[in-house]
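Entry for the shared binder. Reason: the reviewer on the internal report wants the predicted structure included alongside the sequence.
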Amino acid sequence: MKRFQYLCLIFITTVFSCSQKPTENITKNDSEKVKAEQYITVLGIAQDAGFPQINCEKKCCNAYYKGEESKKFVSCLGLVDKASNQKWLFDATPDIIAQTQILKKEHIDNDKIIDGIFLTHAHIGHYTGLIYLGKEALGSKDIPIYAMPNMRSFLESNGPWSQLVTLNNINLKTLKNDSVIALNNSLKVIPILVPHREEYSETVGYIIKGKQKSALFIPDIDKWERWDRNIIEEVKKVDYAFLDASFFRDGELERDMSKIPHPFTTETTTLFENETFETKNKIHFIHFNHTNPAIKENHHLKDSLQKLGFKFAKEGDNFGL
């Protein structure tokens, strides 16, 4: 009997120890959040339409309705500077209500909804959250909105966004490609143009530079080979690279995917296959379509790529700058 109890104890201890591995990652991230004066926090990882996606009856979204997967917010980064008591958003998503609340409750409550928002482009997941700053909702006052010239013109010339401007809910700040915006003495942001469908505006990614580290954020781009920069070299220049991973591979959708170009995750990993583990380890895939298996908490395809060094952004992850 004692031998049986002893074996049971070993089994339970082993299972419990294995189950603690994810917690170790959480503890590390939380620790970094507390120690770093400046850091990036991941507030969303999904493509524009979120997860689950509207009217989706596929296996991917049914996993959410069955309780097998959690809701995923739309791709968004928060930038926090505890020294200056400030916080910013990179993109105003349809999930801005929850995302600003997370920043307030878990990071900084400085009596402001946000100190500024950097927009990448005029596709629904990246700017439509601005509407909650209007008079029907928050009725905010002069929130700085950083936008490229065409993006600014789009907001000024089209309702309901133009009302935000006329009522001074937002204060538009015009960006220039490859120029430096100094948020304070030790925190800088640089917009960089990237090729992407320009129905309403140009598209930019961002370089975010802190006291010690830097990050690259490109949630949307057509294909790496269409860019006038070398993505491998750009990744090597920074400490973290949050890169477009809308689709895992070709054939993922039941339509011509060449008409909605994005770098497949498999294309990006192939591009970096001969680079060092250290370089691969800088990449954090983000902006997953609901059909992308990498949006799931656990999937064997993610596991295989993580063993090679690549990473996948998770909501709540924090990265010291």
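Summary line for the report: The chain has eleven helices and 14 strands.
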